[in-house]
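Self-study notes.
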Amino acid sequence: MTAKEREKPQRVAENVIASDLEFELRQFVQYGEMVDNALQQRNAPELDYDLCQVTFRFPPYDFWQTRVRTGMRTGHGGGFPMTDTTTKPDTTTVPRYSPTMIRLHWLTFILVVLAYIFMEFREIYPRGSDGREFMKATHYSLGLTILGLTIARLLVKIMSGPAPAISPAPAPWQHTAAKLGHIAIYVFLIAMPLVGWATLSAEGDPVRFFGLEIPALLAPDKILSGELEELHEIGGTIGYFLLGGHALLSIIHHAVFKDTTLIRMMPSRPAP
C-alpha cells in the first residue's frame, strides 16, 4: 500500500470530524438564538416578580469531546438538548392575600423598622436634650400606630377566612411552625406597644400620640415603671430575632424551596 493510499482513510476521517463539528456549531448558533429570544420574552409584564423561570441545560464538555473524537452524528438536534427545568410556580396564578391585608402587612413592616431606628438612634443625643425627646416621642407614636394596625390586621384576617394556600405545599411540621411563628409575631406587635404605654403611664409622664395626649393605662408607680421598662427592652431584643427570623425564612422559602410563601404577600401587577 502506497503512502497516498494510507493517507486517504485519515483524510476521510478528518473530513467527517470537521463536517460534524461544523454541524454542531450551526446547532449551537441556532439554539443560542432560541435562548436569546426566550430570555427576551421573560421581560413580559405578565411574569410578575419572577426574573427568569427557565433554565437551559447544555451537555458537559466531555460530551462534545466524545462527539468530535468519534466523528459520529446522533441525529438532527441531538447535540443541544434544551430542557425546561422550571420549578417555580407561575406567579400570575398564585393565590394572594387581599389587597387590604397586603397593604397593612407592608405598612406595619415599615413602621416597625422606623420604630427600631428611632429607639436605637436616640442614643446619639444627650439625655434631656430636645433631639432625644423627639426620638423617644416618635418611637412611642409609631408603637401606638403599630398597635392599631395590628388590631386592624387581625380583624381583616378573621373576615378574610383561611390564608391562601402555599404551592408546593410545605410539610405538616413546617405548616405548624409557621402558625406558631405568626401567633408569636401578633403577640409581640400587640404586647410591645401596650408595655411601652404602661411604662410611660407608670412613670407619670404624659402619653402622647403625635402630640395628642391620650389617657394613661396605670397610676404613677416608679418601681413598676422600672420593671416595665426593663421588660420592654427585653422584648425589643427578642423582636430582632423574631422578626428577623420571619423575614429570613420568607426569603429562604422563595429562593431555596421556591414556593409561594412570599409571593402571596406581594401585590399583583395590573394586566397590561
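Second protein, same conventions, sequence then structure:
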Amino acid sequence: MEKSSEVNMEIKGKIIIVTGGASGIGRGLCQRFAKEGAKAVIAADINEAGAKAVAGEVGGEAFVCDVRKESDIVGLVKFTEDKYGGVDLFCSNAGIIAIGGYEVDNEAWQRIWEINVLAHVFVARAVIPGMIRRGGGAIMITASAAGLLSQIGSLPYSVTKHAAVGMAENLAITYGGQGIQVFALCPQAVESEMTRQHEGGGVAGVDGLMKPEQLADAVMESFAADEFLILPHKEVKTYMQRKAADYNRWIQGMRRLQDRFLTGAPLKKG
C-alpha cells in the first residue's frame, strides 16, 4: 500500500540541510526555516566563512561541503543523522552558471554538470533510503525557470536546469508513494552572487529581481499547499502554458527577447 506524500510540509521542529547555504537563495532559506522554528538548520557550502556566518545568524550548524564530491554529501548527511537522528528536509540548492553556447569548453561543461545535476543524484542516494526507513522526508531541488523555459545566453545552464527539473519529477513519481515529498524550485532572477554579475539580473530579470526573503515566502506557501512546482515568479506559469500551447510561437518570442537583450533594448515592451 502506498504511503501518501501529500501532507503539508511543516518546518517547525524539523532537521533541515541547505546546500549553497552561505549566500543568496540558500541564506534566505536558512533564515526563514530558523524563523519558522526548525529544530536544526545546517548551512552547507564550499565557502566555510560564509556558511559559519549564516549558521551564526540562525543559531544553526555550518558544514563545509563541495557538492561535486559525493563523499562530501555523504559526510554531510552522516554528520546530521549522527547528531540529530535524521534529515527531514534536504534543500539541494547549490548551483552555478556558465555563459556561452556550444563553444563553452569541456572543463566548464563538466563542472556545471557536476554541480547543477550530479549533486542532486548524490543527495538522493544519501538521504532517500534513510527517509524511507524513518517513514518519510522531503527534498527540494533548486532548479530554475530556465529548466522549464530556457536561458538566453547560457546553453550549459539551460541544459543542466532542464535535467534538474527532470530529476525532481522522476523522484516525485518514484518515491512519492513511499512518503517522500519532492519540490522543484524554479525562480527567475533572485538577488545572489550569480545575478550580481548582471545588472537587474540580466535577461532572467525580465519580471524583476526578487529578494531571497520574497522567494522564501513563495517556498513556504508551496510547502503549505504541497505544490511540487514552486514558482516564486508567477509569470512563469503563463510562459509555460504559452510554450505548451504553441511551441513554434514560443520559440519565436524567445528569439525576439534575445534580440532585445543583445541590443540593450528594454526586455519588455511598453
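Instructor comment on the second fold: The helical segments are 24-35, 48-58, 70-84, 106-134, 155-175, 212-225, 235-245, 247-263.
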